[in-house]
Hints:
2 helices; 7 strands; 22% helix; elongated
Amino acid sequence: MKKADFIIIGAVVVVASVMLIILYGSSSNFGSYVQIEIDGKITETLPLDEDEKKKITTENGGTNTLLIKDGKAKMVEANCPDGICKNHKAISRNGESIICLPHKVVVSVVDNNSDDEIDAVA
């Protein structure tokens, strides 16, 4: 490798590091609520600042258990066949979500609990 190659690699690493710091460094990215959707319908909105263990039951007999603790939400139990939702990391930032496809359950972090956001579909 030539000297110019090392300079280009170094520049790319610096730019990527700066972008990560900007993206994950600001504390305003943390959400205030967790929104629970079952089969596309919002069923409940829970605050992230209150510790709670919530059992989610679906019409097809699926059960998931959501644990909210220390400002983070994590799926701790699920009777779905794959269990991928249980292996997902805890979520706390706006836009993060945990999805259980077999049960059609989506848990998302949102900034506020209002439902008056505009859903743009082109």
